[in-house]
Structure formats: structure tokens, C-alpha cells
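Components:
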Amino acid sequence: MRKPILLAAAAIALTAVAAPAQQNSTAAASKAPNPASVHPDFSGIWAFSIALPAPVLKRVENGSTSYAQVDLSGRMPARTEVPGALPSAAKPSYKPEHQAKVKYLFDHEAKLDKVFFCGKPGVPRIGSPRQIIQLPNEFVFLYEDISGDPYRIVHMDGRKHDPNAEPTYYGDSIGHWEGNTLVVDSTNFVDDTWFGEDGYFHSPAMHVYERFWKVGDNLAYQITVDDPTVLTEPWTQAPRMVKPSTEPLLESPVCVEDDAHRMDNLDHHLQR
Amino acid sequence: MKYKFSTILALGTILLAAGTARAHHSPSSIFDMTKKFVLSGTLTQVEWVNPHIAIYIDAKKADGSGVENWKFESAPPAFLRRVGVNSGDFKKAIGTTVTVEGNRARDGSPYGFLQKITFSDGNSLAMVSPNEVNDGGAAK
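Structure:
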């Protein structure tokens, strides 16, 4: 693991930064934080968009024409190289006895994926937070999602997972720092979500690790799913990176999807 | 790059995706995306809902035997919000005559996929290919 190395490197780097400050300004030095307590600040609003071509809205109003397009630059493509990322794999490795089920779910996802029909995506499908509030002993993650606009509390006070917690879609989350990387460790999930749109079902034993770190002003994010009941090994996904945003969160309109009975094929569009 | 119109609209449906892999059924699973049709009638209702908004139109039946209420679904509200369209753009036209262009459901019901709406004052909203912008539109 890279934890001790990162911690040492962070301490050295912070000491190096703090030293000139002490020379330049005694007042500033007296206010300098203890390097051991310094962590990156993830607070703020983060963009959501996808790295795909956008449709364009053409508006004709009083004889003048304008075009508007969603800014898709906010999120880098999943396969873009992200500094600091763990090695990743394109797909999870299911045990042989579960592979047929994954294929069936994938082939029929247009009808079987509850997220298509306003279901809660759960962790990790919810993605990275739209807004992060960083407090001394917890993080608050806020999301915009058509299934509702969930929030998560990530406890940073050293507590363990609650053995009596009821299973939920967003799980029981505790976090810790590994150097400048925030690692969110979540478990206690309901078992009717998928951890990926390709029919990636899981058992109640699923454990999800989300890593967050800064790359410049951007927020890098990477997921590892561990479920020894159905997987042969933990699956670390390709990292993603989101840009800061000034677009405020808004309540998502209610979700009403009732056209499944009209589908006469299983076409759906994928996003990677 | 060239994008098929149906692909463009399909992409609109997933713009609400909250940051990780997410998908939805394609319009082509319900609508005949190879054929467009045009319909005029009275806008009766606007539903600003996920995963795609819907509008309702009373239109005369083709055989002249009366009026039927059509439903048209369109882009997700999260997409429309980001391109500067809100429910008021549609709701202000309730009770007036509108003309819509879109694709009809293959099951033959009065159900369609909205690609363009023209209001009685001549103003319009449409989903178009990025190529149209590149071909001389004033993109912003």
C-alpha cells in the first residue's frame, strides 16, 4: 500500500512549504496549521457532465435564432489518464457461477435496470458528489439525481461501521485519509442495486471504496468494489475527474417513467 | 463529426446522469426514429418530470371523427435547464395552437417523441444536430 509513503511525502512537502513562511512572517507562521492536520479542501460545487457530443437546442424567438449546448467539459473521459490513480480494470471479474446472470441482466437491462425506471442508483452508481461540505469530523456529500436528491454523511471521527445499521441504497460510510487522498469506505447496502449498468449485481456483502484526491483544481475520483460473494477479486474502475462548477444544485423534478410497456426492443444507449 | 439525429436526442436523455455510467432505453426502442411526422393541435398540459418532460396536445383525428389527446415526450429537464429552457416556455402556450415535429410510437398509439415545437407566435424550440451549428449557426 502507498499509505505510509504518501503520508511521509505530504508531511515533508508541507514542512517545506511552511519553512519559508516562518522566515518571512512570524505572524503568519503563528497561524500556520499543524501540518499533520492539513488535508486538501474538497468543499465546493463540482460539475456533472459527460464526455460525449451534446444535442443542441435551437431557439427561434422574434425572428432571431440562437443555439445552446450543454457544457460537457466538466468531466473528463473515464479513460483519460489521471495522475495518482490506482491500476484499473475495464470489467469486474465475476465467479463462473454468476457470469450467466450478469449476461442476462446486461442483455435485458432496458427492462430490468431499476435506474431506468427512477430507481435509486445507490453507491457507487450515484457517482461523485455535486457538492461537498467538508467539516472537521465528517463530510456531507450532496447529489442531484432523478430518483431524488440524496445526501450522504461520511464519518471521519474514527468510528467503525455500525453493525446494526439497516441496509440502505447509499450504505454506511466512514472515511479516512491516506496522504492527501480521502478514502470513503461504505457497506451495509441493499442488494437490489447494480454497481455498474452492465448488470453488475452484488450481494449484501458488497464493500465500496471511493477515493477522492485533487489534481490541480479538479477532483479525481476512483471506485473499488469488493464483493467476495460474487467477485473473484476487488474491481477498481477507471478514474474520473470533475471540474469545479458554479452551477448551484437544484431540486430534481419528480421521476415518472411509465413507457416500458411500449418498448418493442431492448435498445438502449450506453455511456462510459 | 456527424451525429445521427436520433443519437443526439438519445444523448439528451442521459445528460441527467449523475456522474457515473448510466443509460436509458433508446428512443428507437419505442419510436420510429426513421420517420418524422408533423402534428398541430391545442397544447393542453405540460409535465416537467424526469426522466423526460412530456407535453399533451389535442389534435384532430386523421379521419375527422373527433379529437384525440397526444402525448409527446422529450429531453430530460436537467438537459433543458442547462440550455436555458424551462417549463414556463411551454406552459405559457397552454390553450393555444402549436405545431410539433417528431417521431411516432411504433405501437400506433397517440404517443410521440418531440423534436421541435412551433408556437402560435412563430417562435420555436428544436433539438438539432451540432452540424447545424457548425454550418453557420450562432452557437453560444
